[in-house]
Amino acid sequence: MAARIIDGKAIAETVREEIRAEVERLAATGVKPGVATILVGDDGGARFYRGQIEKNTATVGLAYFNHELPADTSEDAVLELVAKLNADPAVHGILALMPMAAHIDQNRVFNALAPEKDLDCVNPANIGHVLLGDQLFAPATPSACIEILDREGVELQGLDVTIVNHSNIVGKPVALLCLNRNASVHVVHVFSKDVPAACREADVLISAAPVKGLIKADMVKPGAVVVDVTTIRDAEGKQIGSLEFEAVCEVAGSVTPVPGGVGPVTNVILLKNALAACKAQVGAA
User: Fold this and answer.
1) pLDDT per position as a tens digit, 52-70
2) Which of 172, 183, 279, 281 could cross-link with 161 by S-S, CB 3.0 to 4.6 Å?
């Protein structure tokens, strides 16, 4: 069996076009969704992410507000900025970029974000809503996994889903999203007794373990959908995932590649979250 390679870029472009159309519809009513980022210091990864957000918001017509603060900015000053953005009606979504300097308690910053503007869902209130299944939006990468499955026509109800990861940003929230679709969910991680056995049970296998070649062909149920969330660099600097890709493709029914799979969809989910946040705040349908 040769698995079908899921085109994350194509899915992302479809979602992007849908968002752009909604933004244009809102503009006709005098509403423009706005996203603000907070960058404290000069961490390279955080700065790159900020640039990607600025670029992506422009592609769909969102307003973008950039706030960059020196590394020695006090925690109180950061919290004051958060409070200002929470109260700003032009800002519908806020992203506090991490890492910040060691003297800033990231949990205090996360807790200070207005839940309805917290696009990364780092405020515990938003994770609570994901648990209850009544969320306005969910964390971007887990939501990207669900978006891909939806676009592929995968109905999760009644399926066995195995998630290889139990982090707060991917494994736990994607498990909740699958449970809320009435899937049977098995979460495994580095301390689990038999990861391969759990993987072989899965109709849908979601791997977010940062380990090259972790998922082998004999760990995949024939015909399964395999979603690889992992992004790591090999010795040559090439972006790769956690699958023995070619071998897995001989067993699986469909597979997301790295790059070109979950990553592009994650980028547009942040925009989708911003749109949902804006519509909720202005009372738009």
Assistant:
1) 999 999 999 999 999 999 9
2) 183
The CA-based diameter of the chain, rounded to the nearest angstrom, is 58
Domains, the chain, ordered by start: 29-114 (3.40.50.10860), 136-264 (3.40.50.720)
Q: Which of helix, strand or coil describes residue 112?
A: helix
From CA 61, how far away is CA 249, in angstroms rounded? 38
257 CB neighbour count, 10 Å cutoff: 19
Paired with 4 in beta bridges are 254
pLDDT score of 1 more than 70: no
Rounded Cα gap, residues 13 and 30, in angstroms: 25
Q: Which residue has the tokens 């070649």?
A: 213
Angle of CA points 243, 244, 248, to nearest 5° = 90
At 112, list the tokens: 């200070």
What are 205-240's pLDDT values in tens digits? Answer: 999 999 999 999 999 999 999 999 999 998 888 999
Going by the DSSP 8-state scheme, the letter that residue 160 receives in this structure is E
- What's the rounded Cα separation, in Å, for the pair 285 and 277? 12
